[in-house]
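Figure S4 source data
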Amino acid sequence: MTQALFDEYLAAVDAEADRARALYDLLVLPGLELTYDDVDPARSAHAVAVGSRSFVGLESGLDAALATARSGGAALIAAHPYDPAAAGGAPRTTARFALEWRELAGAVDRFELFNRRDCFHWVAAAGLPVVASGDFHRREHLETWKTLLPAAKDEASVVGYLRSHRPAYLVDLRAASRLPAAA
């Protein structure tokens, strides 16, 4: 994403949000992926700025990008926070949040506990506020871990809830699809 494309992106997301709400009663929110890649997994990190309605660049590094996104009202999620032992063989070699979570916990609102089938055990052990997601790129990604929030179905409520430390409820949709139907 670039500054030059951001307004077009936001307009497209808003148009799709209107369509999704009208056809399926789905809430679609804008967001940005904030990724700092480095050959050293200890320096690499990935975050998602949910509800970001202004462009956030990474020219000044991830810490500055997180601060900018937060001041713009986004909810920030530390994504793919692999521990260093797992980062080397992971699809994303992003171990910075695992190594520096005490320092970075104030820069984000939640940490990803599950991503598809990956579980970031250290997040649970640290007692951090969590979410579950699944990088929904293909149909089979739908039936993975997801987050349920007891919030009104509007952008401000969802972003506000994610920014709070109130509990999020995590569900494994693959397991739920195998449950017998209610009689």
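Figure S5 source data
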Amino acid sequence: MTASTLADRLRQPEYTGENRCTPCTVVNVVIAAALSLLLGVAWPPLGFVSFALFAGAIYFRGYLIPGTPTLTKTYFPDRVLRWFDKEPTQTRVGATASAPGSATDDDVDAESSGEEVESGQLDGDGSSVAAFDVEATLMDAGALELDESGDELRLAPAFESAWDDEIARTDETVARRWLARLTGVDEADVTLESRARSRWLVAMADGTTLGTWESNGALVADVAADAALDGRLDDRDQLTAEQRSALARGLRIYLNSCPTCGGGVRFGSETAESCCRSWEVFVVRCEDCETRLLEVDAEALEPEAA
């Protein structure tokens, strides 16, 4: 049996690679170090050998101690788990060196965690969006308007019709072309991957994460929204790619029908779960096909204390 064959037999893909849980790995390494230290007290060489074996088990198997996810969820404070969390709770369009900022797989790959990743926003430092008033800009563009009560915003009928037309003509090829133009990469390098465990659609180019979406329907909605906004903003050419994607995401909460199947949409709260923790999220979902169209961490919606 070759070394590579033995390694393949030992490895558990469901707990290693992109599926590796960072908090669980940390817990196991700490336990391995503690056990090795105790063994090393009895005989120092045994401490070094045992740690090497323990580290190998963690590397190939993902865990040393069975039930690690339960241990970390039970005994690690939620704020600590958040430090390691890397599962996007919202969508983000990433950028390469030619666009503002750069993203790596760590921004979106670790399905065991939940670091907040802004939906439909470029993977820059966020500075161009921080002071950017999305709702005011969308109202200036004629995409949003106040309803009859004057208290709530809604899609302007003319814009909604244009958005629906763009959704109808948006497919994967159009989406890949949009991503390439927005981030400055070669269209041929753009790929879209559905990652079942993390529940996210991930756009990649040459190993770099461009962005993530709750679903293909969410990506279609963003691509179509950006196209429908073309010509409606006088300074659109001055907007950063990060700001353009923020506008597209800002419209998604106003969807009245699913871009995937045309069904109605519902709004509600759900409990999202990762390997080690659970948290409440606000979700926009299709009533018919259950496609997630928008997901926001519920804490982000809570008003700040005065």
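The first helix runs from residue 3 to 10. Confidence is low (pLDDT under 50) at residues 86-92, 94-122.
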